[in-house]
């Protein structure tokens, strides 16, 4: 039996793993594999108080706090969940290839994990997200260069579209040269056109 190609997708604040089912369904339907089979993982974030929302408990990968009119992350909770997911992913994939993806909060994790996991992914998808706590990220020195897709809405009121450019610049500074950044006329969400672009990009990225 051929080996799995793992696809990990991390959802945004207040959602759950099923929120990203349209992405995983589209990828597994439209991106055929010859030497592997798809193994999809859409984990649920733990339920914890979110300072930005008055301490209301909800599914959240890490805490968000207000900082002089902007949104910042709690460094300790972000570092903690990153370490937990590093171990979980390593345990699940073993030596198999894998792909990371995430929306908003989940995209923060996809970016961090793509740069910090001991064995890098072959590709990463980062949607409507931002570069959080870059001082915690040691720039990789192993020559890793996964294909990256950054998608962002031009009308996003929660994470302004310029966040995509900042993330792209940081990834480039980390040595990643195969980064695709695309913008879409949407707020904090994903358009069908974006899903089409993701599946086409991934199919091309996985082709020999």
From TrEMBL:
Pfam families: Abhydrolase_2. GO terms for molecular function: hydrolase activity. Keywords: Hydrolase. Residues 7-204 form the Phospholipase/carboxylesterase/thioesterase domain. Belongs to the AB hydrolase superfamily. AB hydrolase 2 family. This is Alpha/beta fold hydrolase. It comes from Guyparkeria halophila.
